[in-house]
Design goal:
The chain is built from three helices and four strands; from the N terminus they run αβαβββα. The chain is of the alpha+beta class. It has a four-stranded mixed beta sheet with strand order 2-1-3-4, with helices on one face.
């Protein structure tokens, strides 16, 4: 019984921590004329990586004519993920950030190239 109570408390604490962590994630992604239509496979990759880690991000749809709104990222490409004060562009770099740097992934060292 004590174990069940402690496990329930741990789950509530983890959910609270997870909400605090994910509340500062924003994903800017490419959308069609209908904002509900997101057609970029690179953006899908990031959405799936977030889902795999059990994270949720605020999703901001942008059309081609709205890409100037991500000028703060230093590029004119999508997807862009903001995590607090960090700005990460490119789906590969975002995946590495989610896997290595943030949310308790592997070691913080970057992977080396295969030979």
């Amino acid at each position: 019984m004590l174990f069940a109570i402690l496990l329930g408390q741990w789950r509530r604490d983890w959910c609270t921590i997870n909400l605090m962590i994910t509340s500062n994630l924003t994903l800017y992604e490419l959308a069609g004329a209908d904002p509900a239509v997101r057609f970029s496979p690179h953006c899908w990759t990031v959405v799936m990586a977030l889902a795999h880690k059990g994270l949720e991000a605020a999703r901001v749809p942008l059309r081609f004519s709205d890409i100037h709104k991500v000028a703060f990222s230093g590029q004119a490409l999508l997807p862009v993920l903001t995590h607090g004060t960090e700005i990460i562009g490119d789906s590969w770099r975002i995946a590495l950030h989610l896997l290595l740097d943030a949310f308790g992934g592997f070691a913080r060292s970057a992977p080396t190239a295969r030979s």
